[in-house]
Prior knowledge:
single chain, mainly alpha, 3-stranded antiparallel beta sheet, two-stranded antiparallel sheet, 6% strand, rod-shaped
Amino acid sequence: MRRIFLFLLACLVALAIAFGLASLPGHVSVEIGSMSIAAPTSIAALALIILLIIVYGVLRLLGVLFRLPRRFRLWRFGRSRAQGDRAVTRALVALAAGEPGAARRQAEAARRLLGDTPQTLLLAAEAARLGERSDEAQATFRLLAERRDSAFLGLRGLLREAILHADWGEAAALARRAEAAHPGGAWLRRERRRIAIETEDWRGALALADAPARAALAAAAAEAETDPKAALKLAREALAADPSLPAAALALARRLRARGRERRAETVLGNAWAEAPHPDLARFLLEPLADPMARVNAAQRLAARNPAHPESRFLLAETALGAGLLGEARRHAEALRAEGIAWRRLWLLIAGIARAEAEGKDNAAEREALHAAATAEADPEWRCSACGGPAPKWQPVCSHCGMVGRLKWQVPPPLPAPVPLPEPKIELLGIEKGPVGP
């Protein structure tokens, strides 16, 4: 209804204009050289309107012809863009499906249609990496790294390739460039920490570590540090982060001893023994003492910081045995047996006491203790609390699972009981018989 009303209104306006033109008075005459044209005013006005319409139409036609090449180029670009987008989608699907051949073909098609954009270069590099074409992937990642808008994408790809091939020097250089291109990335922080750990750059790893790993990394950094002041600071940081870590106490005590502060080192070892006794602490404390009785006295002072712990009993028994105090040594050994300790280390200690009591002669007590040691429980050892893997000595990183700061001094779990094998059956002439008896 509205359209009809507007149409009728337009007709009325047109009729009004036509009536106005027809009612114009007078004539219009035009002389061009010897030619003279005369017409009523209404006809002249109508001719002028028609002429303007024709000129407008010619100008529009010229504009269309002038813009035709550009529109053709835009049409071709749009068509290539649509085909390129479809190729990108197919390449992503092929990558997700684990089809390197199809991914490479579609990625190349996308590059051909869209050019070397960050998206097409990344697709091509990932397709080459999926197809185990390392050289091709690295070349494409380098193209990405050379662009300012996609430098981090290229550097990340190159960094992953360097880590895959264990080229840690190149990986460290790429990590620094990636940090400059995109500072503060969580993924990059983890990779930089991994690279620092693999290259044993403990200070670099410490700067990137989370709280649970700081004590282990600081202790390792203190041991590796050549500057005495920096090493002392790192050792104190390690002990403050985890007072129960023997490696941290040893690192600090070692630096204090090197500076001539033996009494302060003994205090550090005593505090660590009170937190978590460990044989390495006692071994370091007694290392400079050659006199057996001096070793006994030092052991007594250390054991007094945690007298109920089995390691204190072991320390007192071993130093007493070394000083020839056999009764004292046996007293502590028997106290350990009464507490339910049945480690191999205890039976070897008892065998040593029996040998000393027999003045080196073969005796039944020693043989019995050695026999018990052969089947006794395993001694405490360093084990990873994450994967359970053993380690011959403390280290900041588990060599089995790569976790940082997870080695704990503990008794290993008992071996599983052997599964009994089924009794063999002898089948003779179709008759089943059990195992033959004596």
